[in-house]
Fold this sequence. Notes:
mainly alpha, binds carboxymethyl coenzyme *A, three-stranded antiparallel beta sheet, CATH 1.10.230.10
Amino acid sequence: MSEFVKGLEGIVAAQTEMSYINGEKGVLEYVGIPIGELSAHSTFEETVFLLWNRRLPTKGELAEFTGNLRDRYSMPDGIASRVTSVPKTAEPMHVLRTMISALGMHDTDPNANDADNARAKCLNILGQAPAMVAAFDRHRRGLPVIEPDTSLTFAENFLYMLNGEKPTETMARAFDICMILHADHGLNNSTFAARVVISTLSDVYSALTAAVGSLRGPLHGGANEGVMKMLNEVPSVDAVEDHVMGMLKRKDKIMGFGHRVYKAKDPRAKDLQGLAEQLAKDTGNEDLFAKSHAIEKIMEREVAAKGIYPNVDFYSATTYHCIGLQLDLFTPMFALSRLAGWSGHILEQLDGNRLFRPTADYIGPHAVAYTPIEKR
Length: 376
Ligand code: CMC
């Protein structure tokens, strides 16, 4: 009987050729390429191709892949009308999860899990998910929905559908970098959820729906919204010390810090820190960045010895705020990008699948006599 490991820490439950993490050294690579190289030189579209094919595309392959993705920017009518009929008070992550699930009903062959069909479904969902989020946001703000523009990149098109105007080059590139940085990350909780579901040979829609549900939790992708809430609660840079020390004393978790795998600064946080600093300057949000930086300094002094450093969610909060996104769109942004990784893992799992079926360590009583209801 193997040992029970709470939270499955350190348990190897899958093999992947997509991302490599060295938590001690703070290294993340996609198919062997350091994440910093990709955020400096690649695009989201190229990164998705890399993850799904385990190699960089040629010019022609990238053009073809990008074209195919753009052909899928529009939602089917049935989904578009659903998105604009949900309550305006709904949370965008609930909407995204529900619409990905609903998309399965618009597929005439939803259970086809052979490699070509599964990949086509993943591409469809990746292409259409930004429209779901943007259309819902416009709907709840009482604004007309904006049709996608297939001349735009994934990042540009999302911001265009959200705001009704094309983003500046700087904003589009910043958003594209965020998409690259969040695209894949080993066997994180939501990726595991996707792999567990597809391992029953269920369907791509069900697996991705489960993944979105997992990501929204505050211990996972929901942490970026928690970071922003904390930054909003702290009135000034001067108030950071008392606020953070109070939280640590109460043993509250500081959102955006700590990681199951990283015991050094998350390399994505390093990239996002630079991006957040620049965008904060460009958009007059220097105060927000200064507060974030002050929090990091206190955490370094107080808890770095325990291996608690900023993770991807810490500086992404400031970055998303400066890009102009509403607070409850932060986690959906994570999801739009991570659809790439989840999909890649679903394809890997289907290729050589074995059902996930761990065991539970039963710790209750045995041989208990049945007590009739009138005697209880
Ligand atoms: N603030 C304060 N203390 C912390 C934090 C934090 N953010 N994270 C961990 N600790 C402490 C924790 O209190 C515990 O201390 P002690 O040993 O004295 O009881 C110790 O560090 C170990 O913590 P843990 O919760 O057992 O560690 P874990 O590996 O189970 O949890 C984590 C990892 C990410 C859930 C946790 O660090 C956390 O809750 N962080 C805040 C939420 C967050 O930022 N989540 C995003 C994770 S990265 C992106 C993603 O995957 O979505």
